[in-house]
UniProtKB/TrEMBL annotation:
The keyword Ribonucleoprotein does not apply. It comes from Cloeon dipterum. InterPro entries: ConA-like_dom_sf, MAM_dom, MAM_domain-containing. It holds the Pfam family MAM. SMART domains: MAM. PROSITE patterns: MAM_2 (PS50060). Residues 1-18 form the signal peptide. Gene3D superfamilies: 2.60.120.200. Residues 45-232, 232-398, 408-588, 598-703 form the MAM domain. The keyword Transmembrane helix does not apply. Keywords: Signal. GO terms for cellular component: membrane. PANTHER family: APICAL ENDOSOMAL GLYCOPROTEIN PRECURSOR, MAM DOMAIN-CONTAINING PROTEIN. This is MAM domain-containing protein.
Amino acid sequence: MRGGLLVLLQLCAASVSTSPYSHFSTEDEEFHSLLSRGKRQETAEICDFGSDTDLVTCDWSNRNGTHMRWDAGAGSLSNWLGGPPKDASPNDDSQRGGYVYYETSFLPTPHTTKKGQHAYIESSTMGSTGPEGKCVGFSFSMSGLSATGLRVILKPRNSNADEDDDMERVLWSNKDPTGGQWRQADVLYTYNKEHQVVFEGIAKSTSDPLRRYRGHVAVDNVALKPGTDCRGHCTFEGGFCAWTNDEDDDFDWSLGRGSTNPSTGPAMDCTSYFHGGMEGGYGYIDSSYPRRPGDVARLSSPEMDATGVDTPLCLSFWTHMYGNGIGTLTILLMDVREGNERDIWTLSGEQGNAWYQAEVPVSSPNPFKIVIVGKVGKNIMGDIAVDDLAFRVGSCPTAPQIAAPMPGDCTFEVDECGWANVPSRERMDDIDWERVSGVTGAEGRPQLQTFDHTLSTDKGFYMTLARSSNVQRPASRAWFTSREFPGSANPHCVSFWFVLNEPFIGNSGPSLGALSVYTKVIEPDGNVIRKPVWKLYNHQGPEWHYAQALIQEEKVFTIFFEGIWGSSLANGLIGFDDITLFDGGCSTVPASATVHAGDCRFERDICSWINSTASNTFWKLATVASRPANLPDKTYNAPEGYIYFDLFNSGSSVVRLTSPHMAATEDRQLCFAFWFTAFGSGESAELHVVRVDNTTDDENRKV
């Protein structure tokens, strides 16, 4: 069908008939890794772990003395033995390809130490990496309620890691599920002695009830490659890697091992600062003579591939900004095709005599470069240093928060970052959002979710929908709003992590409530337009889940989170954490949170539907004071939140409610679903659903 269509709800005098409807659903969008990768050198050592009939582990072996273990597996064996249903290869034989996995529901023997509850698989012993380092490339998958993490560890060969944890160095870690997909990762490191690389699979504590549920941490296609294969990564031990000093700036970035002026610059590189040792270098700008205030040095990355839709990157690095003459450190994203640049991270002034980790989301529809810009401050005590540049797939809140180009990213570890509950003079809600940790809980009460998402500890903070014995009832809501953002013709994406957990569900079914994300625009005439961009209802499980939504607003706008309690008053948790805003389009994640044209729960208004009856008679919103037979709504069992029409007190026999225009759907069908009830129907009322085809001037009606 070409063109668009409308849906009409029409009520007129006739008999009522019913027919079943079911809600449609779509599959979750897959996550695909688009991180640029260099060509493998002939010297790379690669292990794909064979196939289901010939599984191998190459030179990787389980650590001696540990009860938990990694096993070789394949997709064809996964329903029998465990592991993901396919390996990381993109071909049709992915069910037969091999991988190694740790079944996280497997329980250790009694009295096992905490370290012994994890599974370790180790490489063979390797010598010094040299100053260029070694690049560890691999694919990983993590799924299930009992799986909680994967780490890549450097283990010095002359240490007994079971007795001396301090000798081990964590090179990389992941705590988030991969959504049933394989993801790609690269890890660059340097070490000047004999050592091993270790993959550590981490399960939930044995005291956690979720530990007994199936889960896995899996690794595939492990490649030990030259350091130059980790494109964009740099430790500055052997130079600037593939990063280059620009020719059209005022001076160059330099390599350093330690400052020669105790009043500015770091005493040692980032790795030595945290782990000790003598090896290590960093990149820095030297602010001493002949530099002048305002001089700029630019360091550019190699060209990176476009990130594409739903595949942002996170650039992490360490920075040292010490001295009373510190200027400004800026991260630019240069669009190679268009030739333009934009700030994605900037920080000015002294930040203390220490190394701090910084993170920034990176998204570009075209090939791009990252440019690190150091600007000299007011005097010679203004050395700025950077170290350990790395990219990983996925969005991340800008850190520190003050470095973000727009105030919106937030981990809630320090405060609400400018987000706030709606002021009482403006509010259309009746409860608040609260910033809590697993230790304190809301108003001192224990929380169902004891760990936040950022730190994954009970000391981390996140936002949760408050409960109040004074004003709370079904459909009680709270709004949490951002500062204003400038409008743009280009799309943006907002990502966050959420939890909707209703651990005890009654016979009537899930009744936790809802979490929604809206944009709000105030027109010049004062008209307020609120547009839902993401909405999810009721129980989604006890874990943190990733979410994202598309923002398309050309006028100044704000974003607000809305939480609504259902009729489940005794238990449950609605919360969110780690908000990130980045440029570029994205699809809705999870797909079930997509807001379609015409979707409406009638919680506060009739959304984008229109009362289209010619007379003044129309569908009404139910209120506490005006509703038929004290009927509660279907969504939350609240006293309001639906529409009705009173035939007995109306002068019209027909009333219409018209949907917004909906785009034509040539490749798929739509299911229109709703709930209804009738009072005193008999043969006096009839409900019609009418589709109007707008391809011609004459209405093509289909009932």
